Amino acid sequence: MEETKEFEGNEELVAIQKYINYIIAILLLTGQLTITGVFVKSDGISISLGGPIIGSDRTVAKRGNRTVNLLIEVIDVILALLIFTDQIGISSIVISSEKFFINVTGPIFSEPRVVVSAPAVRENIKAFNQIVPKQYQIDSSKMGKIMKGGTP
């Protein structure tokens, strides 16, 4: 009952989040995403996913060991099943200079379910818009050239 109250007024955002989770599960099953790391924290576990579709290498055995590669595939299938059964879901996206990773977690890993909230999204956007312009000065003429495919 308490979980239902959290979703009130956010049905569209919750649906989008669910679709994103399903897309992640499908990408796991098709080999476009794979497990790239496991983060063990004092209060739970989260799994990092990466793959060719998001600019990182697919996780494979270093020496081509078929058993290890099969184990990686099995882990990917299990993660997809956990996503389809709503046991885990996307919790964050980590961006580096060349690639990014998707982190998933959930109650099965002792982490709370990430519940999207319109007020929280609005607050995050507001904070982003206040912080970024103060910390990063962007030359609009150079940005215009970059956006048109030129060099700054």
If you had to describe this structure to a student in words, what would you say it looks like?
The protein is α+β, with helices and mostly antiparallel strands and 152 residues long. The protein has two domains: 114 residues, no CATH class; 36 residues, no CATH class. 46% of the residues lie in helices and 18% in strands. It contains five helices and four strands; from the N terminus they run ααββαββαα. Strands 1-2-4-3 form a four-stranded antiparallel beta sheet, covered by helices on one side. Strand 1 and strand 2 form a beta hairpin. Helix 2 packs antiparallel against helix 3. The longest helix is centred in the N-terminal third of the chain and has 19 residues. The radius of gyration is 19 Å and the shape is globular.
Secondary structure topology:
Blueprint: H1 2-7, H2 11-29, E1 34-41, E2 44-50, H3 66-84, E3 89-95, E4 100-105, H4 118-135, H5 140-147
Antiparallel strand pairs: 1-2, 2-4, 3-4
Helix pairs in contact: 2-3
